[in-house]
Task: inverse folding
């Protein structure tokens, strides 16, 4: 989380925020304010030409009001010190004052001409969620498992989303990964003739037996609360039976709805009819079948990637189970089985969520922090090669789009803290490039969502890999070197460029023109989360805005 320093002005005792008595209010405000301001800089102020350099600050205009910030970290937009806005009272000379979240929200709404009555409440809900998370986290015991500790470290959430922690529904703190929650799934029995499943579902059977004529189906307790009205009929007439809490607790990972089961070492991806960032997190019926189909198709692809780039791993999704009780319950009760990371990482290798590495030190093993600080440029070079090379090869050589953003990648470290493996997960966002794969025989409703055309696929690869992932980790790595962050950041991107040029020379095919353009300095695509949230549109409709390419070689820089 960025630290926005408190202003030097003494507070007026008559205008004190009642939240000021809450020790978690200030960091929650900082997180929410920073996220919205980053969105504005990236998606609106920059493209409209409303951002200008002024000494150590960037000055931008929001609804005609000058706002200034100190920014580091390149396109990651990390803030040093508090955002300020120019305040003029009764015609007097303007004075710079700290900018608070309600003021920024009001400016954004005015600039965008209103039209979204939900927006302010969503931003405020995100702020309150962070405060509640911090309060609950202070009382909780983190998991001993270092991978799970990293999964549960994302307190502030997506740094470029206007309301990254706003979650619909009640009772979510009991199931939030950031609060170090653990809970027992509820076990349902589905009448055998109504079971819908494909692939290997043995991990679901391990949660306990069901009465004769029924098949066990673990369910997320929060989801059962959300579906209570729809479940009354099937529970009353015996199509479903409630078998009570499962035999052991599971641990939620960073996505909230995906949990780790220590008993089997597998993960379960539940449906949740809850909006988290831009999406309602349910498993659409075609995604259930799509996960199993992609697992079958990607097994040989990842085998080839692992031979070409040792240390490449993936978490397959070999099966799913649900109940044929209409589309609403088919999707709402659907659960996907996913391989756990400890099953695929090599001996002595510790998986760590890339999101934790990008966010800072929380949830990151001490050995990794020490090795990164001791030799940041060499550590980063190894990191880029482990993560970027297989993602690019999957796209150019195999026609596979991997969503390598920071919540979909685990990086495996050896005992010394050196990056030696990259683990890719979440087949929901994995796509096949149109024309590169024969989908004959698949139902159209399943085949369609599995595919992207090449241009759309490259935008997704470039955004997730370079903007969402590498830029954020690079900004954090550079900040660990006191006093020389800007110089270290330039060195990191120079090394990344050299590594990518080496990859391009050794591995790419004739279809790698998009990478050639990127290495020549073409702008990068950044997902427009503010735009899609303001429009109240589906996440799949989100567009991209161009951002400066940190791989670009400045005039006279190349040796």
Result:
């Amino acid at each position: 989380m960025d630290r926005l320093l408190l202003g030097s002005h003494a507070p007026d005792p008559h205008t004190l925020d009642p939240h000021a008595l809450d020790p978690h209010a200030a960091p929650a405000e900082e997180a929410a304010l920073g996220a919205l301001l980053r969105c504005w800089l990236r998606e609106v102020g920059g493209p409209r030409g409303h951002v200008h350099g002024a000494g150590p600050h960037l000055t931008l205009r929001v609804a005609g009001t000058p706002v200034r910030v100190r920014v580091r970290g390149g396109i990651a937009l990390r803030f040093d010190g508090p955002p300020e806005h120019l305040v003029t009272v009764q015609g007097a000379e303007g004075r710079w004052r700290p900018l608070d979240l309600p003021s920024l929200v009001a400016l954004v709404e005015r600039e965008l001409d209103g039209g979204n009555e939900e927006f302010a409440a969503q931003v405020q809900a995100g702020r309150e969620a962070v405060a509640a998370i911090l309060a609950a986290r202070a009382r909780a015991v983190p998991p001993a498992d270092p991978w799970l500790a990293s999964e549960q470290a994302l307190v502030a959430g997506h740094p470029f989303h206007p309301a990254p922690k706003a979650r619909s529904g009640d009772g979510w703190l009991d199931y939030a990964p950031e609060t170090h929650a653990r809970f027992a799934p509820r076990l349902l029995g589905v009448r055998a003739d109504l079971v819908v499943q494909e692939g290997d579902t043995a991990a679901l059977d391990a949660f306990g037996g069901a009465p004769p004529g029924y098949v066990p189906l673990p369910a997320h307790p929060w989801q059962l609360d959300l579906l209570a009205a729809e479940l009354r009929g099937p529970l009353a007439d015996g199509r479903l039976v409630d078998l009570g809490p499962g035999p052991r607790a599971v641990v939620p990972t960073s996505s909230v709805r995906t949990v780790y089961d220590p008993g089997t070492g597998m993960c379960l991806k539940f449906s949740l009819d809850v909006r988290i960032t831009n999406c309602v997190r349910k498993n659409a019926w075609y995604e259930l079948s799509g996960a199993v189909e992609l697992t079958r198709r990607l097994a040989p692809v990842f085998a080839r990637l692992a031979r070409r780039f040792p240390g490449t791993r993936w978490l397959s999704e070999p099966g799913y189970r649900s109940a044929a009780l209409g589309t609403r319950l088919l999707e709402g009760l659907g659960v996907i089985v996913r391989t756990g990371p400890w099953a695929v990482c090599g001996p002595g290798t510790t998986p760590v969520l890339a999101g934790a590495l990008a966010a800072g030190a929380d949830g990151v093993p001490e050995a990794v922090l020490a090795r990164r600080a001791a030799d940041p440029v060499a550590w980063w070079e190894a990191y880029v090669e482990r993560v970027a090379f297989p993602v690019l090869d999957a796209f150019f050589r195999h026609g596979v789009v991997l969503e390598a953003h920071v919540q979909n990648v685990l990086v495996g470290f050896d005992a010394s803290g050196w990056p030696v493996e990259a683990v890719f997960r979440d087949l929901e966002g994995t796509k096949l490039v149109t024309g590169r794969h024969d989908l004959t025989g698949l139902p159209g409703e399943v085949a369609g969502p599995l595919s992207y055309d090449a241009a759309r696929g490259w935008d997704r690869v470039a955004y997730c890999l370079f903007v969402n992932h590498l830029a954020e980790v690079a900004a954090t790595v550079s900040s660990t070197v006191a006093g020389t962050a800007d110089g270290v950041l330039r060195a990191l991107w120079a090394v990344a460029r050299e590594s990518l040029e080496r990859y391009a020379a050794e591995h790419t095919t004739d279809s790698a023109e998009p990478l050639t353009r990127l290495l020549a300095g073409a702008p990068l695509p950044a997902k427009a989360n503010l735009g899609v949230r303001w429009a109240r549109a589906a996440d799949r409709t989100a567009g991209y805005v161009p951002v400066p390419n940190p791989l670009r070689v400045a005039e006279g820089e190349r040796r």
